[in-house]
DNA sequence: ATGGTAATATACCAATCGGTATTTTTTATT
DNA sequence: AATAAAAAATACCGATTGGTATATTACCAT
């Protein structure tokens, strides 16, 4: 019965997990320390014993939410055989993202964190930017590999496609959430599918 | 020297205009009443004499920011001759939206308000949703008219195109802002241009 | 079992939060 | 110029904010 995690590390993880949805729905400014203590049933002393401040919790929570999403994507991409299928994983995942429990409540953490932090919180912004650029790079890599495998046209603008795919997904999520209509996202994903089809040889 | 606006109406307008950028950058939760009094150099008594509460100011500010953007778009669309050109107005405007003074600081108010309010503030969410659906309808109308004018293919899925265009723009803005790269938005707008080209006969 | 340490809880802080009741000032009408 | 009404300023409210210093508890190695 050995646990690798120390008591503090376990508590830290517990705090992150139980406040993940709160930060992702209410945002950084909208989440208070008492929200955190209420949800975790811990006291301020415990929170501040494991984190420097509220921002530190928010950063850890973003990390958690982001990697949760990334993991789901990564697994499905690994299973896909063709590069077309691999790209289509994004479309499929977000095509019914309302239902998947893989997603933290409150929608895409990248979208939420980016739009709130881009003018207010340099650290959160930096972290969100890194996530976007990593995501972009992953898509570009898939496209390049697809080109090498003669699956995609040789002259595809991988950067443009990657950014457009991300934009369609994030913009689509925004629309779907504010209009309470998953089908709106589905329609946008249809265009994403088209975009992916177009780069095939 | 008669002014149509009463004193109160002028003050109200003044408050809206001088806090427009604050709400659009810091968000609803991130903007405090003291932010408002500091910026306007007015007192709480004056603010609460002209608005019910903070939410009421935020709603008026959104209205202001949104109609400011809408006006720019509307004017340019009116000047465009073909329906293709009219649709391309969106691409052109957002293609250098960082520079245009027509835009409130902090980016697109629809994107900002939607992502913050969708899980927290029903009134702001409702207003943002209305804006998205109005925008969508405007694009759909342009497409339909373009079809009637034999400029666009008769079997175009106007709803899908409209939603995808909005998603590309809003998603592109999010990416550009968080990565501090206007060129990232330009690349996404390139895809938007392609999307518009594709529906032409 | 014990002592040291790690972790959590308690109690408290000044500052700020959104909001209101009241007073003062400004404006418009006569 | 006098006056009533409208608008803005002042002064205040309890509650909550993020954060800290200190006390208490839980844990672990000896």
TrEMBL record, chains A, B:
InterPro entries: Homeodomain-like_sf (IPR009057), HTH_TetR (IPR001647), Tet_transcr_reg_TetR-rel_C_sf (IPR036271), TetR_C (IPR011075)
Keyword Cell membrane in annotation: no
Keyword terms of this UniProt record: DNA-binding, Transcription, Transcription regulation
Gene Ontology terms, MF aspect: DNA binding
Residues within the DNA-binding region(s): 32-51
Record's keyword annotation contains Transmembrane helix: no
Domain of life according to the entry: Bacteria
Residue intervals of the HTH tetR-type domain: 9-69
Residue stretches spanning the membrane: none
PROSITE patterns in UniProt: HTH_TETR_2 (PS50977)
PANTHER family (alphabetical): HTH-TYPE TRANSCRIPTIONAL REGULATOR LMRA, TRANSCRIPTIONAL REGULATORY PROTEIN
Protein's name according to its UniProt entry: Transcriptional regulator
Taxonomic placement: Bacteria, Pseudomonadati, Bacteroidota, Sphingobacteriia, Sphingobacteriales
């Amino acid at each position: 019965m050995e646990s690798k995690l120390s008591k503090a590390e376990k508590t830290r993880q517990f705090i992150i997990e139980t406040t993940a949805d709160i930060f992702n729905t209410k945002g950084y400014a909208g989440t208070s320390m008492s929200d955190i203590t209420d949800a975790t049933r811990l006291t301020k002393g415990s929170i501040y014993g494991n984190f420097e401040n509220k921002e530190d919790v928010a950063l850890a929570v973003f990390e958690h939410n982001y990697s949760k999403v990334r993991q789901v994507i990564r697994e499905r991409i690994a299973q896909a055989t063709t590069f077309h299928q691999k790209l289509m994983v994004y479309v499929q995942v977000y095509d019914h993202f309302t239902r998947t429990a893989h997603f933290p409540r409150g929608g895409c953490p990248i979208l939420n964190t980016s739009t709130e932090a881009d003018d207010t919180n340099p650290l959160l912004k930096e972290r969100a930017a890194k996530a976007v650029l990593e995501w972009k790079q992953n898509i570009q890599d898939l496209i390049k590999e697809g080109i090498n495998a003669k699956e995609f046209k040789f002259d595809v603008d991988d950067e443009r496609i990657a950014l457009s795919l991300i934009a369609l997904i994030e913009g689509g999520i925004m629309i779907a959430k504010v209009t309470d209509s998953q089908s709106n996202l589905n329609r946008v994903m249809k265009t994403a599918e088209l975009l992916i089809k177009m780069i095939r040889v």
